[in-house]
Write a structure and sequence with these properties.
By secondary structure, this protein is α+β, with helices and mostly antiparallel strands. It has 2 domains: about 80 residues, Glutaredoxin, CATH 3.40.30.10; about 110 residues, Glutathione S-transferase Yfyf (Class Pi), Chain A, domain 2 (Up-down Bundle), CATH 1.20.1050. Helix content is about 50%, strand content about 10%. Strand 3 and strand 4 form a beta hairpin. It starts with a strand and ends in a 20-residue tail after the last helix. This is Glutathione S-transferase.
């Protein structure tokens, strides 16, 4: 059995969390694309790894012969943090703070922004009556803005969510990066805007966001490694 990390990936916010973390932690990995636009997440082989038929998923065949499989991006980030010893503090009090903000994103920011995005897209489909989607759009936009307010307060006087850059920042950043325009750009959230720009300049973040693009000819950018 070959050793190493295999990332099952699509360039969604949850997928980019893991590719960014792997780049930041300098862990070698290969990428297997799962094109959710073509329904590849329903393949039986993928479902064995990710029973919830969602990306990302990860398999780590360790040097001692273990085969570790993970799904859910938060669980994967925690595992990679423990494995690498990076971006996930060993001090219990500090780790609890990172976990709290990681789960805040998993339970709040991601699902709410995702629902808002869905209703906005559906309301723009020709022949759909946008009045049918007015209430859910209002409800989810209001909640996403509330969550941005929570993050804005936390970032006041801080460079990163838990002072030091961590998996909590990676987890929230990918969602803000992709969907911040849904709440009217970031002009009303100065601390988030500065935090977003600060992280966007990190070389590992740039690499992690550029490993595979389904719209390109073969999907692979120069930064990505195609599966063997």
């Amino acid at each position: 059995m070959s050793t190493g990390i295999e990332l099952f990936y699509f360039p969604s916010p949850n997928g980019k969390k893991i590719s960014i973390a792997l780049e930041e932690m300098e862990l070698p990995y290969t990428v297997t694309p799962v094109n959710i636009l073509r329904g590849e997440q329903q393949a039986p082989a993928f479902l064995e790894i990710s029973p919830n038929n969602r990306i990302p998923a990860l398999v780590d065949c360790t040097a001692n012969g273990q085969r570790i499989t993970l799904f859910e991006s938060g669980a994967i980030l925690q595992y990679l943090g423990r494995k690498s010893g990076k971006l996930y503090p060993s001090d219990e009090a500090a780790r609890c703070q990172v976990d709290s903000w990681l789960f805040w994103q998993m339970a709040g920011l991601g699902p709410m922004a995702g629902q808002l995005s869905w209703f906005l897209r559906v309301s723009n489909i020709p022949d759909r009556d946008e009045r049918d989607y007015g209430y859910p759009i209002h409800r989810y936009r209001k909640e996403v803005r509330r969550l941005y307010g929570v993050l804005e307060r936390q970032l006041q006087g801080r460079e990163y969510i838990c002072d030091d850059y961590s998996i909590a920042d990676i987890s929230a950043w990918t969602w803000v990066d992709q969907y911040h325009s849904q709440v009217g750009e970031l002009d009303d959230f100065g601390a988030i805007m500065a935090w977003h720009a600060r992280i966007a300049e990190r070389p590992a973040v740039l690499r992690g966001c550029d490993i595979w693009h389904p719209e390109s000819n073969d999907g692979w950018s120069a930064a990505g490694q195609a599966p063997g």
